Amino acid sequence: xxxxxxxTLEGRIYSCKHCQTHLALSEDIESKxxxxxxxxxxxYRKVVNVTLGESxxxxxxxxxxxxxxxxxxxxxxxxxxxxxxxxxxxxxxxxGKFILERFKVSGPDGSNYWGSHGAxxxxxxxxxx
Length: 129
Ligand SMILES: [Zn+2]
Known about the structure:
Layout: E1 13-16, E2 22-25, E3 29-36, E4 39-44, E5 50-60, E6 63-72, E7 78-86, E8 98-101, E9 105-106
Antiparallel strand pairs: 1-2, 1-9, 3-4, 4-8, 5-6, 6-7, 7-8
Bound molecules: zinc ion.
Zinc ion binds at residues 16, 18-19, 21, 72, 74-75, 77.
Domain Yippee: 12-109
GO molecular function, one term: metal ion binding
Family: Belongs to the yippee family.
């Protein structure tokens, strides 16, 4: 890894709960109707300050997707995943977009969302159908 350039956002910011690195803006939220294993997850058009894990095929609630986990550049914790491609036609809108698990990030007002206990990530998604 080279030197990391951490981007500072302005506005209503979602940031890493552990290290407060800025991750996304509320205006970039596409949908709040997603779910991860622990509760809410939001779909964003854009996130910053993350690194991508390896792509893998994952069967989600809405079908087969190619996804990659995303990690905070500040502390390395997993914060969600990116949809690289969707196999179902009606899920194509997710491609290139990002999920941040709500319990992994602090909201614009500093609120923290605590899902059910446990810290496993990945696995499920959902849809706003
Ligand atoms: Zn972090």
